[in-house]
Amino acid sequence: MEKLIYERPLIKKLVTGMPNKFGMKTVNEPISHIENISVKELLEKYGSPLYVISEKTIRKVFKTAKRAFETRYPKVQFAWSYKTNYLNSVCNVYHQEGSWAEVVSGFEYDKAIGNGVDGNHILFNGPDKSEADLTKAIKNGSYIHIDNFDELYTIVKLVDEIKEKPKLAIRVNMDTGIFPQWDRFGFNYENGEAWKALNQILMNEKLELVGLHCHIGTYIMKTDAYAVAASKLAELAVRIKNKFNKNIKYIDLGGGFASKNTLKGAYLPASDTVPSFDEYAEAISNALLTSELEPQHMPTLILETGRALIDDSAYLLGTVQAIKRLADGRRSMIIDVGVNLLFTAFWYEHTITPAQPFSQYTEDTVIYGPLCMNIDVIRENINFPLLKKGDNFVINRIGAYNMTQWLQFITLRPNIVMIDLEGKVHIVRERETNENITNSERLPMHLQKK
Ligand SMILES: *Cc1c(COP(=O)(O)O)cnc(C)c1O
Q1: Is pLDDT above 50 for 16?
Q2: Model pTM?
Q3: Domain match, 324 and 283 both
């Protein structure tokens, strides 16, 4: 018998309410305003599509996360994950709230310095640090989280030429009971590589070991995984103390807390299933506080939370371009937001809500972006109200990764505005122009029009 093609099982929770002949409603109320500012007015003034960031939400969510950890553990420090959203306006809100910077490239490192972050408040992660990057980081007193032995040996070579003693941590990867296990970054715990790297650093008088780092994955819904990670790093810290009589300054558990966006194919909406900051904090602090770490030398707990902090703080507004029937009779809707602006549509079922009152009738709809590319699908199938050309909509929870992983592809990137605490709207990144793109191009002489 021929093997059947595997089809992913898909079970959906039905939201109770009045069904109509097409099924249940997925949206109940329009979103006509964001923080009392009319969506239509924003689009008229700044163009469609438009990214809108709420400073108020950034600060509110940050305070919730900070409180969850600070009420449970004596010393806590957040470091903003630049790659999650490195708009200067966003980074500076986090820096004002007391966050350090967590960067994963020379480009991000320079951005953090440009934002006025002290060198000794920058954590430098990632597998790609050039000698120039490392030299700069050592001279600035930044914390270098070593990814591999080659990087360690490069640093050992560099310290012969640089006077400053580098402040080092290693990234550790480990089995925390989640699948897939991320083992491509850092040194493995179980096979002894992490311990070997630590010994090489601690035996070298020119190097200073300050911390231990891990980042076990992203969108981790199991708080237990963090408890395992914290226990394993604590165990390494205790071994360091026993063998070298040295107390490390910090344990950095990275990021990876899930945001409230629902993953494709998820059984329940994320808002019902994702752990709260309190639950993550409880698992982590409990593991550290009950470990064999000496009470008088508890390391600072560093967190590099990205998506769970920023996702709720931004919206993507847009306009319906056209409605059409597909060959199989299904309704489809073309909008001016594509995967070039909403990269996370590849793995999330984003919530999309009309910005004006809508009819109670709904229909199964495919939502396409404006790109002339088959992959440009925002929702494969959503039971959606019948919008028409020119109607507006709001996609919420898009703050993480979209403003960094976006693509300049086929169209230009639109304006980004931030609503401040007083309700004033500021452009924080201007829409791109043709010149922005072509200015860095060079046309060889023989191809120029005479
Ligand atoms: C991407 C990244 C983060 C942030 O991850 P989130 O899943 O967005 O919380 C933190 N630390 C490191 C090392 C990362 O690479």
Answers
A1: no
A2: 0.93
A3: no
